[in-house]
């Protein structure tokens, strides 16, 4: 089994006990030596997708070695095991398929959900479930059954970044069919070959999964991933008051973006109650960010959520969201629609007009519309505020709204920038500036770790605000405004400890925590958390 395999690192006593002599070469190697060999093999692969496939194969064989290799080369390999390369792997799932991993549930066989989940253990065996229906994957849209890979990738990150035990996780795909014609016409496609099911039957499928998962694994935390625009927030809102659940596209993206924004507001000396924000792209991510910002403004300034939402202007394909669009607005967009009387029709058709009229401090892009933040728009922002805060967040890199180097050039070096993918440092007037990455992986693993360790009954809004404050406190820009707005992913394990501690303290204060004897002292709490985080080391095996 991959959880126990040590390959060439099995010591002599275990080789004898488990009759491995003759099955392994005689030289016993250390984990570090195995990592060195594995990295050479990884580096020899011709392209990023081949490297991704190599890593998937290693994970299936030797989990400790897989995670130790990732931990050793985390910055280099992050884009291989997650965005953007994981998107390529998902698009080619049925063609690259070698060995199944995770739980495959399909809408045409709902009667077997309980039997399927029972294959993954008993009530004490699962802490963390990631589930996706594959409708909106990483900016590449509907990928059907290939969504199992995004569930797997997210769980890899919870282990790598927060020490969630890899044997206590469960990746799930809810196969409801697909509207992706390329997949439907592909003879090798492994999922249901039919159009995506929607409506009542879909809702019954999701609900049945939730109910059975809760019965089978009553302590498990459920993480929703890459559900479609019309379902993501609706499903989250339905279950967030019933079970400990989280949607990374909505809440994770919102939290990490908000942490970067709060750090930028500190640098620019703009108060939260005064900030004006434009969000370009009002899908799941954009409205999730808007909702998280509004929650935080309301919590920190004691404004109502409705008044807090008035500091945010959301733009989507038809233009600025206004109330006359009611029939076409999603439930997530509705709270941010403006009064039509504020906006003569000719003034809300394009981003430049909104920027010109609003004079925002913050511009956030989640549109997947490349180069949408033009020179004209950046210069218009910089004309009205001292330090424009500009976050082109769309993934993958080719879909970014603007390049960081251009933003610095067009704003005369005044902009505070964070992106959705890693970018190299930019040069401006002889100075080099590192670019912060709004990487959800600095946030969602710590939130999940805190919820799992406290056995929190729910994930409350205050717990998310606490997570944001913990992440913001790690911002290098708070000490030097020339440094990035968010910490480096290389420090993610200790960041996760800070976030988990903040989440646990909030869960205890709100009387949501069910775990007993949680330390109340900050230092003791963090040591308690660290002691329960899984590390990629070989453990002694006994029969």
What's the count of strands?
Answer: 14
CATH superfamily caption of the largest domain: NAD(P)-binding Rossmann-like Domain
Count of helices?
Answer: 22
What is the third-level CATH name, the topology of the largest domain?
Rossmann fold
Can you name the CATH architecture of the largest domain? Answer: 3-Layer(aba) Sandwich
Q: Bin the helical content.
A: 40-55%
Number of domains: 4
Helical/strand content category: alpha/beta
In which order are the strands of the major sheet placed? Answer: 8-7-6-9-10-11-14
Which residues sit in consecutive blocks of at least 5 with pLDDT less than 50? none
Radius of gyration: 24 Å
CATH class of the largest domain: Alpha Beta
Mean pLDDT: 95
The biggest beta sheet is recorded as:
7 strands, mixed
How much of the polypeptide forms β-strand, as a percent range? 5-15%
Binding site for a divalent metal cation: 225-226, 249
Active site: 82, 154
Keywords: Metal-binding, NAD, Oxidoreductase
Family: Belongs to the malic enzymes family.
Q: Which helices and strands appear, and what pairs or packs with what?
A:
Elements (H helix, E strand, L loop, with lengths): L11 H6 L13 H13 L4 H14 L1 H10 L1 H8 L3 H7 L1 H4 L6 E4 L6 H6 L9 E5 L15 H15 L6 E7 L5 H4 L15 H17 L4 E4 L7 H8 L5 E3 H21 L8 E4 L3 H18 L3 H5 L2 E5 L2 E2 L30 H8 L3 E4 L9 H10 L4 E4 L11 H7 L5 E4 L6 E3 L2 E3 L2 E2 L6 H11 L6 H12 L19 H18 L12 H10 L12
Keywords: Metal-binding, NAD, Oxidoreductase
Family: Belongs to the malic enzymes family.
GO biological process, one term: malate metabolic process
């Amino acid at each position: 089994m991959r959880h126990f395999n040590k390959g060439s690192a099995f010591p002599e006593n275990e080789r004898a006990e488990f009759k491995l002599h003759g099955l392994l070469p005689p030289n016993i190697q250390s984990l570090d030596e195995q990592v060195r060999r594995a990295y050479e093999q990884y580096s020899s692969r011709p392209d990023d997708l081949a490297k991704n496939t190599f890593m998937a194969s290693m994970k299936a064989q030797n989990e400790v070695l897989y995670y130790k290799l990732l931990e050793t080369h985390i910055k280099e390999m992050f884009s291989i095991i997650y965005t953007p390369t994981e998107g390529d792997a998902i698009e080619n799932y049925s063609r690259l398929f070698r060995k199944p991993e995770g739980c495959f549930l399909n809408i045409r066989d709902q009667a077997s959900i309980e039997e399927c989940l029972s294959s993954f253990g008993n009530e004490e065996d699962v802490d963390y479930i990631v589930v996706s229906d594959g409708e909106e994957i990483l900016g590449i849209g509907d990928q059907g059954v290939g969504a199992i890979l995004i569930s797997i990738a997210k769980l890899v990150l919870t282990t790598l970044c927060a020490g969630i035990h890899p044997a206590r996780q469960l990746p799930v795909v809810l196969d409801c069919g697909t509207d992706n014609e390329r997949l439907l016409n592909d003879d090798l496609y492994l999922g249901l070959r039919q159009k995506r099911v929607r409506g009542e039957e879909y809702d019954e499928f999701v609900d049945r999964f939730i109910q059975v998962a809760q019965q089978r694994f009553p302590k498990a935390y459920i993480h929703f991933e890459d559900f479609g625009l019309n379902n993501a927030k609706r499903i989250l809102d339905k279950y967030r008051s019933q079970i400990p659940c989280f949607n990374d596209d909505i809440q994770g993206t919102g939290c990490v973006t908000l942490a970067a924004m709060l750090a930028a507001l500190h640098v620019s000396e703009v108060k939260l109650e005064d900030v004006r924000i434009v969000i370009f792209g009002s899908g799941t991510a954009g409205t999730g960010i808007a909702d998280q910002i509004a929650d935080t403004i309301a919590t920190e300034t004691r404004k109502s959520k409705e008044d807090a939402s008035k500091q945010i202007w959301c733009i989507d394909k038809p233009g600025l969201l206004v109330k006359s669009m009611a029939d076409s607005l999603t439930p997530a967009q509705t709270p941010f629609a403006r009064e039509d009387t504020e906006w003569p029709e000719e003034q809300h058709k394009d981003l430049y007009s909104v920027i010109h009229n609003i004079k925002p401090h913050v511009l956030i892009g989640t549109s997947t519309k490349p180069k949408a933040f033009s020179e004209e728009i950046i210069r218009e922002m910089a004309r009205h505020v001292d330090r424009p805060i500009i976050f082109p967040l769309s993934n993958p890199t080719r879909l970014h709204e603007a390049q960081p180097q251009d933003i610095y050039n067009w704003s005369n070096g005044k902009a505070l920038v964070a992106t959705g993918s890693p970018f190299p440092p930019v040069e401006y007037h002889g100075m080099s500036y590192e670019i912060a990455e709004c990487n959800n992986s600095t946030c969602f693993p710590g939130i999940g770790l805190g919820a799992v360790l406290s056995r929190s009954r729910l994930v409350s809004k205050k717990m998310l605000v606490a997570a944001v404050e913990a992440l913001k406190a790690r911002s290098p820009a708070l000490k030097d405004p020339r440094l990035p707005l968010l910490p480096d992913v290389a420090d993610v394990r200790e960041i996760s400890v800070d976030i988990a501690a903040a989440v646990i303290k909030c869960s205890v204060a709100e009387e949501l925590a069910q775990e007993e004897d949680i330390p109340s002292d900050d230092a003791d709490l963090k040591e308690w958390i660290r002691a329960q985080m899984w590390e990629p080391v070989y453990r002694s095996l006994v029969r």
